[in-house]
Specification:
elongated, Rossmann fold, six-stranded mixed sheet
């Protein structure tokens, strides 16, 4: 059997999915974590699966999440629905429940966070709730794994016995009641033909849902009769059709809660959140607080913990390389093979792996901010300034994900309601500095700006955001005129981060980094080593300046003269960076023949502090990796638009680095 897991955002849906399936899926604390539907087999029940659908507030097809959810329920026809609701905010959550009841599919209501309700002096009469809604109601606490077995048993029972909701009519009399019943009778045959509930079809027709109306294939005469009933309802109720339906549902919810719910007092978590928000979402203190928090994260990552651990790992890799080199020499292996292992694999892959501690430490802090609920506040705080450049706060959620990786960030734009907002956000995400660029920043900051590493790092991130803002302002006036969609977000209470969630995110990032190091970067390193070792006649070269790689690099190096760096090795590293940004470091290591401990000194022969800064500006802004480009191609559905985005990125990177270098050179000249 297949069960659909449906609920509002921030109601604990993904946590429940993890408990049901044992899936190691990251649990976030802001909307937009669940973009696609995810499927997992229920633990202990082979063949029974649960599908984690995106968090939604309504079945109306306004957003991509709502479309995904509704399409799955109507087209796939799951055997049962698990509707999870936040018991601490039950009135708002039940609005979606009533819409699901109208679909007339076997269903169970999971009252989540019941431990918090009890802890704050509230109660819910389960029997009265079941009687009022006509479906089984199971109290649970997904975070504490309470009531999960009862929930599985209940949904199996209703699904296997095909027990449908007993209540689908939420008003006994009045204009709305008359209208829905009139339309239901007129549409009954059409609804049964396409396999949907007449009640659901009727409410969708009243709401003016074009998808449902077209699928019913109604005649003009039938549509006119139904429209007459709807207009009569609007006249008698004194409300427009959508407001009348909403009023009907909330009246019913109020009666249900009046019978079955004793509201809890204000929770300690909410009181604490209000006090914290007085500072962190304050009109004047919010953005300075955010910058201070991020500076602390970068300082701890790059100036204290991460750098120390990275140096230790680098020393270990260099010692392993030295031992391997001596062993190969003692064995008398072919010098070319020795060069491949030492100068290729150890110098390339090893140099990238040494930055693994920095990646893990950074995401340790970011996952704490995310799970605590702070990231949702940042999206809220940034809504007002983002509107001035043509975006909404929800776009900032995708951009925040972009600090980790551009691939999921681009995919997360599916949660944006407006196609305009979505395409504009996709074009801006590559300006957000992803974690793959961290090894480049860390290498150059340690080599040329050792005393100011944290400042250099936060400066690069700030520059990427600033360039994104300028680009957004230009795009708003040219390609994307118009206003962004309204932004609605629920701010969850601040909670202590889950140790499991933080550990899972750190593990995912470490695993992804190591996989990239031994796949994409490994292949790129071998290609770079081959091109650097042989000439056009495939003879081994003694001077890498005569190699195939030098030939390619020297062709494009003149393009970077205005940017201050025209060494062919610097240009070649940028090309390899298209496969994966970490490959820039491995390529420079291979080309200079230096291990990680000596790479900073080797770079001093290629760059000055000024040209190194210009190089950092270019790597910050130029085209994302091939995986991100492929994702952009898939999400935009156009190869030409993708090519345009890549060209725009490279153009902006070149102009920004050129302006920086020329302006800095001019200042130094006068100083």
């Amino acid at each position: 059997m297949i069960y659909a897991l449906v609920g509002n955002q921030n109601c604990g849906k993904t946590t429940l999915f993890n408990q049901l399936t044992g899936s190691n899926q990251h649990v976030g604390n802001f909307p937009g974590v669940t973009v696609d539907s995810k499927t997992g087999e229920i633990r202990g029940d082979k063949g029974d699966a649960v599908v984690d659908l995106p968090g939604i507030y309504s079945i109306r097809p306004y957003t991509n999440e709502e479309l995904v959810t509704r399409r799955f329920i109507l087209k796939e026809r799951p055997d049962g629905i698990i509707n999870i609701v936040d018991a601490t905010n039950i009135e708002r959550n039940l609005y979606l429940t009533l819409q699901l009841l109208e679909m007339h599919i076997p269903m169970v209501l999971a009252l989540n966070m019941m431990d918090e309700v009890r802890g704050n002096g509230g109660t819910i009469d389960i029997e009265k709730m079941e009687e009022a809604l006509g479906i089984p109601v199971v109290p649970i606490s997904a975070a504490k794994n309470e009531g999960i077995e009862d929930l599985i048993h209940a949904v199996k029972e209703v699904a296997s016995r095909r027990i449908y909701p007993k209540v689908t009519d939420f008003c006994e009399k009045g204009a709305v009641h008359r209208c829905i019943h009139a339309v239901s009778h007129q549409v009954e045959d059409h609804a049964e033909r396409i396999g949907i509930s007449p009640r659901f079809a009727a409410t969708k027709i009243v709401e003016g849902d074009r998808d449902v109306i077209e699928s019913l294939q109604l005649s003009d005469n039938e549509l006119d009769l139904m429209e007459h009933s709807i207009v009569e309802m609007e006249r008698d109720s004194g409300m427009d059709r959508n407001a009348a339906l909403a009023d009907m549902r909330y009246d019913f919810i109020e009666k249900v809660c009046g019978r079955a719910v004793i509201k809890c007092r204000e929770s300690r978590e909410h009181k604490r959140s209000v006090r914290i928000d007085a500072v962190l979402t304050n009109k004047y203190l919010a953005i300075p607080s955010f910058l201070a928090i991020m500076f602390l994260v970068f300082w701890l990552t790059f100036g204290v913990i991460g750098t120390y651990l990275s140096d230790l790992l680098s020393m270990g890799i260099d010692r392993l390389a030295a031992v391997t080199e001596r062993a190969l020499a003692a064995y008398g292996i072919n010098p070319v093979v020795e060069s491949l292992v030492i100068d290729g694999i150890f110098a390339g892959v090893g140099s990238v792996l040494s930055f693994l501690p920095i990646i893990v430490v950074l995401f340790f802090f970011l996952s704490i901010l995310e799970d605590s609920g702070y990231m949702a506040r940042i999206a809220f705080v940034m809504d007002r300034p983002l509107r001035r450049i043509g975006l909404s706060g929800k776009s900032f959620v995708s951009m925040l994900i972009g600090f980790g990786c551009s691939v999921p960030a681009v995919m997360s734009t599916r949660t944006l309601s407006s196609e305009r907002d979505r395409r504009m956000t996709i074009m801006l995400i590559p300006f957000i500095s992803c974690s793959a660029k961290i090894p480049i920043y860390a290498l150059f900051a340690a080599a040329f700006f050792r005393k100011y590493q944290a400042l250099v790092m936060i400066g690069l991130y700030a520059l990427g955001i600033a360039v994104g803002i300028v680009s957004a302002m230009v795009l708003r006036k040219t390609l994307f005129s118009g206003k962004p969609m309204p932004f609605v977000m629920e701010l969850p209470n601040y909670r202590f981060p889950s140790a499991k969630s933080v550990a899972l995110l750190m593990w995912d990032k470490a695993k992804d980094f190591v996989q990239r190091a031994f796949t994409v970067i490994f292949i790129a390193t071998l290609i770079i080593w081959f091109l650097q070792t042989f000439d056009t006649r495939l003879n081994v070269v003694e001077d890498s300046g005569n190699s195939l790689l030098a030939l390619i690099g020297k062709l494009i190096a003149p393009l970077f003269i205005p940017l201050g760096f025209n060494d062919w090795r610097a240009a070649t590293a940028l090309i390899s960076g298209f496969s994966a940004k970490e490959a820039v470091v491995s390529t420079l290591s291979v080309l200079t023949g230096a291990g990680m401990a000596d790479l900073g000194d080797a770079l001093a022969g290629i760059f000055t502090p000024l040209t190194a800064a210009s190089y950092l500006v270019f790597t910050l802004l130029y085209t994302p990796c091939v995986a991100a480009v492929a994702t952009i191609r898939r999400e935009t559905g156009s190869a030409w638009k993708t090519l345009g985005i890549v060209c725009m990125q490279c153009g902006v990177a070149w102009v920004a680095a050129c302006i920086f270098y020329q302006a800095a050179s001019l200042c130094l000249h006068f100083l």
